[in-house]
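Exercise: predict the structure of this protein bound to iron/sulfur cluster.
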Amino acid sequence: MTLLSRDYIIKEVSVPKVDPSKCVGCLLCVKACPYGAIRGEPRKPVTIDPAACQGCGACVGECPYGALDMDILSDDAIMAQVEAALAEEPEKKVIMFTCAYCSYYAADNTGILKLQYPPHVRIIRLQCSSRLNWKHVKRAFELGAAGVFVTGCSLVTATT
Ligand code: SF4
Ligand code: SF4
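Solution:
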């Protein structure tokens, strides 16, 4: 009722930006978006409805042409976190990508419950695990990571 009684609602989400010079209109992102926020026609640049977008980043992770990116958690920002986590003794490190919801809170609760997970795990929190792009996983292995662990819910596997 609090939400519905307002004249307007301010959403704090990071809506991806489309680079029309790179978008080939393959429409993979349209299929990947769980919220129906992307409109497009074959072989034409897509557009994103900011009101419908929830900022999950699934479309960015899906685009094979690098035509999408986000201000928050851009491809470069994720890459920088991977490289920083593996700067020392990468062969002992496991990179764990989590979503901001279920899997990050599971890791957080581990601490609250005074349980332990192996100290060589380095967590990188994404908004949704579907935001992850293959190039981040590839870079982790190039730098010598012992492993990469991607966590998420069934919605991720259904949409990617
Ligand atoms: S996946 Fe990338 S290239 Fe394909 S339509 Fe979407 S933004 Fe364009
Ligand atoms: S960020 Fe998520 S909700 Fe927004 S357009 Fe991309 S896939 Fe759809």
